[in-house]
C-alpha cells in the first residue's frame, strides 16, 4: 500500500456518520470559528449530489432560504462536521439532482421513502 492510501485510511476512521445518499433530507452540524469563539451551525436541506471517493469525497446540500436557493458543499470526512442527522429519505432514481435547481415550491419536493 502506498503512503497516500495509508494516510487516507487513517483519516477515514469515523464511525459516527450515518449512511446517507442522494435524495435524503439531512441536518449537517458544522463547526464555525468566528474570531476567537467556536459555535455549531446547522444546515438542513436535500442532498443533491455526492462526488469523489475516499478521503476526498464531498456532498452538496440544497435548501431554499427566503425564496433563494442555497447550496453548500461539505467534505464527508471533515473533522469540522460534528454530526449528520437524517430527517427523511427521498425516493430518487438519479445520482445528481440538479433538476431541483429549476423547480419552485411544491414541484421541488421529492417522494418520501418509508424506512
Structure explained in plain terms:
With about 120 residues, the protein is mainly beta. The protein has a domain at about 20-95: SH3 type barrels, CATH 2.30.30. About 10% of the residues lie in helices and about 45% in strands. It is built from 1 helix and 5 strands, in the order H-E-E-E-E-E. The protein has one helix at about 5-10; strands at about 25-35, 35-50, 60-65, 70-75, 80-90. The chain has a 5-stranded antiparallel β-sheet, with no helix packed on it. The radius of gyration is 16 Å and the shape is globular. The model has no long low-confidence stretch (mean pLDDT about 90).
Listing every helix as H and every strand as E from the N terminus to the C terminus, the arrangement reads HEEEEE
What percent of residues are in strands?
35-45%
**Roughly how many Å apart are the termini?**
38 Å
Q: C-alpha Rg, in Å? A: 16 Å
Reported by name, the CATH topology of the domain at 18-94 is: SH3 type barrels
* Parts with pLDDT < 50 across at least 5 consecutive residues: none
Number of helices: 1
**Strand neighbour order, sheet with most strands:** 4-3-2-1-5
CATH architecture of the domain at 18-94: Roll
Number of strands: 5
Q: Quick one: biggest sheet? A: 5 strands, antiparallel
Q: pLDDT average, as an integer?
A: 89
The SS-based structural class is mainly beta
- Describe the global form: globular
Helix content: under 10%
CATH class descriptor of the domain at 18-94: Mainly Beta
Amino acid at each position: 500500500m502506498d503512503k497516500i492510501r495509508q494516510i487516507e485510511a487513517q483519516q477515514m476512521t469515523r464511525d459516527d456518520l450515518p449512511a446517507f445518499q442522494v435524495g435524503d433530507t439531512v441536518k449537517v452540524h458544522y463547526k464555525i470559528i468566528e474570531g476567537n469563539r467556536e459555535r455549531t451551525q446547522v444546515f438542513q436541506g436535500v442532498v443533491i449530489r455526492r462526488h469523489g471517493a475516499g478521503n476526498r469525497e464531498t456532498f452538496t446540500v440544497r435548501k431554499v432560504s427566503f425564496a433563494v436557493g442555497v447550496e453548500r458543499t461539505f467534505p464527508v470526512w471533515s473533522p469540522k462536521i460534528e454530526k449528520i442527522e437524517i430527517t427523511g429519505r427521498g425516493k430518487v432514481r438519479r445520482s445528481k439532482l440538479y433538476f431541483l435547481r429549476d423547480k419552485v415550491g411544491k414541484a421541488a419536493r421529492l417522494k418520501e421513502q418509508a424506512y
